Amino acid sequence: MLYAAFSGFVRLASGSLPEVYAACHERPDALIFDSRTGRMVDIDPRFPPRDDAPKPGRPRLGVTAREVTLLPRHWDWLATRPGGASVALRKLVEEASRNPKARQRQLRDAAYRFATVLVGDAPGYEEAMRALYAGQGEDFAAHIEAWPPDVRAELEKMTAEAF
Protein backbone atom coordinates (compact mmCIF):
# COMPACT_ATOMS: atom_id res chain seq x y z
CA MET A 1 0.00 0.00 0.00
CA LEU A 2 1.28 3.46 -0.84
CA TYR A 3 1.16 6.54 1.30
CA ALA A 4 2.21 10.14 0.71
CA ALA A 5 3.08 12.85 3.21
CA PHE A 6 2.57 16.53 2.50
CA SER A 7 3.56 19.71 4.27
CA GLY A 8 1.38 22.36 2.78
CA PHE A 9 1.59 21.75 -0.96
CA VAL A 10 4.98 20.00 -0.88
CA ARG A 11 5.30 16.21 -0.93
CA LEU A 12 7.70 15.14 1.81
CA ALA A 13 7.74 11.42 1.12
CA SER A 14 5.88 8.55 -0.46
CA GLY A 15 6.08 4.81 0.04
CA SER A 16 5.00 2.38 2.73
CA LEU A 17 3.45 3.79 5.90
CA PRO A 18 6.52 3.10 8.07
CA GLU A 19 8.78 4.80 5.48
CA VAL A 20 6.56 7.84 5.14
CA TYR A 21 6.08 8.18 8.87
CA ALA A 22 9.83 7.94 9.48
CA ALA A 23 10.46 10.67 6.91
CA CYS A 24 8.02 13.18 8.38
CA HIS A 25 7.20 12.30 12.00
CA GLU A 26 9.14 15.30 13.31
CA ARG A 27 7.21 17.71 11.09
CA PRO A 28 4.17 18.91 13.05
CA ASP A 29 2.51 20.22 9.90
CA ALA A 30 2.87 16.95 7.95
CA LEU A 31 -0.26 15.22 6.72
CA ILE A 32 -0.10 11.56 5.66
CA PHE A 33 -2.54 10.29 3.04
CA ASP A 34 -3.45 6.79 1.97
CA SER A 35 -2.96 7.05 -1.81
CA ARG A 36 -5.53 4.32 -2.44
CA THR A 37 -8.41 5.95 -0.54
CA GLY A 38 -7.35 9.60 -0.36
CA ARG A 39 -8.00 9.59 3.38
CA MET A 40 -5.68 11.16 5.92
CA VAL A 41 -3.95 8.70 8.23
CA ASP A 42 -3.83 9.58 11.90
CA ILE A 43 -0.91 7.96 13.71
CA ASP A 44 -0.45 7.86 17.44
CA PRO A 45 3.27 8.65 17.94
CA ARG A 46 3.36 6.26 20.90
CA PHE A 47 2.71 3.41 18.46
CA PRO A 48 4.50 4.25 15.21
CA PRO A 49 3.93 1.97 12.23
CA ARG A 50 6.64 -0.55 11.52
CA ASP A 51 7.44 -3.13 8.91
CA ASP A 52 6.49 -6.43 10.45
CA ALA A 53 8.00 -9.54 8.95
CA PRO A 54 5.41 -12.25 8.35
CA LYS A 55 5.19 -14.67 11.24
CA PRO A 56 5.22 -18.42 10.72
CA GLY A 57 1.91 -20.21 10.80
CA ARG A 58 -1.49 -19.59 9.37
CA PRO A 59 -2.13 -15.97 8.34
CA ARG A 60 -4.95 -14.01 9.90
CA LEU A 61 -7.91 -13.69 7.58
CA GLY A 62 -8.94 -10.27 8.83
CA VAL A 63 -12.61 -11.23 9.14
CA THR A 64 -14.70 -8.64 10.96
CA ALA A 65 -18.10 -9.46 12.41
CA ARG A 66 -20.70 -6.70 12.02
CA GLU A 67 -24.45 -6.47 12.03
CA VAL A 68 -26.40 -6.63 8.77
CA THR A 69 -30.08 -5.76 8.65
CA LEU A 70 -32.09 -7.40 5.88
CA LEU A 71 -35.72 -8.17 5.18
CA PRO A 72 -36.92 -11.71 5.95
CA ARG A 73 -37.12 -12.58 2.24
CA HIS A 74 -33.46 -11.58 1.86
CA TRP A 75 -32.45 -13.86 4.73
CA ASP A 76 -34.53 -16.65 3.18
CA TRP A 77 -32.75 -16.25 -0.15
CA LEU A 78 -29.31 -16.13 1.51
CA ALA A 79 -30.09 -19.30 3.46
CA THR A 80 -30.55 -21.21 0.19
CA ARG A 81 -27.10 -20.24 -1.11
CA PRO A 82 -24.24 -22.74 -0.88
CA GLY A 83 -22.11 -21.94 2.15
CA GLY A 84 -24.79 -19.84 3.81
CA ALA A 85 -25.34 -16.11 4.19
CA SER A 86 -21.74 -15.09 4.93
CA VAL A 87 -20.30 -16.81 1.86
CA ALA A 88 -23.09 -15.46 -0.37
CA LEU A 89 -22.59 -11.90 0.89
CA ARG A 90 -18.81 -12.08 0.45
CA LYS A 91 -19.27 -13.31 -3.13
CA LEU A 92 -21.76 -10.54 -3.90
CA VAL A 93 -19.44 -7.89 -2.47
CA GLU A 94 -16.43 -9.26 -4.38
CA GLU A 95 -18.36 -9.35 -7.64
CA ALA A 96 -19.64 -5.80 -7.19
CA SER A 97 -16.20 -4.47 -6.22
CA ARG A 98 -14.67 -5.86 -9.42
CA ASN A 99 -17.09 -3.84 -11.55
CA PRO A 100 -15.02 -1.31 -13.58
CA LYS A 101 -17.50 1.49 -12.85
CA ALA A 102 -17.17 0.82 -9.12
CA ARG A 103 -13.38 0.98 -9.44
CA GLN A 104 -13.60 4.31 -11.29
CA ARG A 105 -15.87 5.66 -8.57
CA GLN A 106 -13.40 4.56 -5.85
CA LEU A 107 -10.53 6.31 -7.66
CA ARG A 108 -12.55 9.48 -8.12
CA ASP A 109 -13.66 9.48 -4.49
CA ALA A 110 -10.05 9.07 -3.36
CA ALA A 111 -8.91 11.99 -5.51
CA TYR A 112 -11.80 14.09 -4.21
CA ARG A 113 -10.91 13.39 -0.56
CA PHE A 114 -7.25 14.19 -1.13
CA ALA A 115 -7.93 17.39 -3.12
CA THR A 116 -10.52 18.63 -0.63
CA VAL A 117 -8.02 18.57 2.22
CA LEU A 118 -5.10 20.17 0.40
CA VAL A 119 -6.61 22.45 -2.24
CA GLY A 120 -10.29 22.68 -1.38
CA ASP A 121 -10.18 26.45 -1.69
CA ALA A 122 -7.93 26.61 -4.78
CA PRO A 123 -9.10 28.37 -7.93
CA GLY A 124 -10.85 25.90 -10.20
CA TYR A 125 -11.47 23.37 -7.41
CA GLU A 126 -15.22 23.07 -7.94
CA GLU A 127 -14.84 22.89 -11.71
CA ALA A 128 -12.13 20.24 -11.37
CA MET A 129 -14.32 18.11 -9.11
CA ARG A 130 -17.26 18.41 -11.51
CA ALA A 131 -15.01 17.31 -14.38
CA LEU A 132 -13.62 14.47 -12.25
CA TYR A 133 -17.06 13.02 -11.53
CA ALA A 134 -18.30 13.67 -15.06
CA GLY A 135 -15.42 11.56 -16.37
CA GLN A 136 -13.93 14.47 -18.32
CA GLY A 137 -10.22 13.79 -17.97
CA GLU A 138 -9.02 16.61 -20.22
CA ASP A 139 -11.15 19.19 -18.42
CA PHE A 140 -9.97 17.89 -15.04
CA ALA A 141 -6.33 18.19 -16.15
CA ALA A 142 -6.95 21.73 -17.41
CA HIS A 143 -8.53 22.83 -14.11
CA ILE A 144 -5.68 21.47 -11.96
CA GLU A 145 -2.90 22.77 -14.25
CA ALA A 146 -2.23 25.85 -12.09
CA TRP A 147 -2.23 23.94 -8.80
CA PRO A 148 1.03 23.28 -6.92
CA PRO A 149 3.18 20.74 -8.81
CA ASP A 150 3.37 18.08 -6.08
CA VAL A 151 -0.38 18.16 -5.46
CA ARG A 152 -1.08 18.05 -9.18
CA ALA A 153 1.33 15.12 -9.67
CA GLU A 154 -0.32 13.16 -6.84
CA LEU A 155 -3.78 13.81 -8.28
CA GLU A 156 -2.64 12.76 -11.76
CA LYS A 157 -1.27 9.54 -10.29
CA MET A 158 -4.45 8.91 -8.30
CA THR A 159 -6.71 9.50 -11.31
CA ALA A 160 -4.64 7.75 -13.99
CA GLU A 161 -7.28 5.00 -14.28
CA ALA A 162 -10.31 7.08 -13.27
CA PHE A 163 -11.22 8.29 -16.75
Summarize the structure.
This protein is mainly α and 163 residues long.
Mean pLDDT: 93
Task: Kindly state the number of beta strands.
Answer: 3
Strand content is 5-15%
Percent of residues in helices = 40-55%
Described by the principal axes of the CA atoms, the overall outline is flat
Count up the domains. Answer: 2
Element pattern in H and E: EEHEHHHHHH
> What structural category characterises the helix and strand content?
mainly alpha
N→C terminal distance: 22 Å
Main sheet properties: 3 strands, antiparallel
Count every helix, treating DSSP H or I runs of 4 or more residues as helices: 7
Catalogue the unreliable spans. Answer: none
The radius of gyration computed from the alpha-carbon positions, rounded to a whole number of angstroms, is 20 Å
* Strand line-up in the sheet with most strands: 2-1-3
Task: Describe the fold and architecture.
This protein folds into 2 domains: about 1-50, no CATH class; about 85-163, no CATH class. The protein is flat and about 55 Å long. A 3-stranded antiparallel beta sheet has the order 2-1-3. The longest helix is centred in the last third of the chain and has 20 residues, at about 100-120. It is built from 7 helices and 3 strands. The model has no long low-confidence stretch (mean pLDDT about 95). With about 160 residues, it is mostly helical. The two termini are about 20 Å apart. Helix 4 runs antiparallel to helix 5 (about 125-135).
How are the elements arranged and paired?
Blueprint: E1 3-7, E2 10-15, H1 17-24, E3 30-34, H2 72-79, H3 84-97, H4 100-119, H5 125-134, H6 137-144, H7 149-158
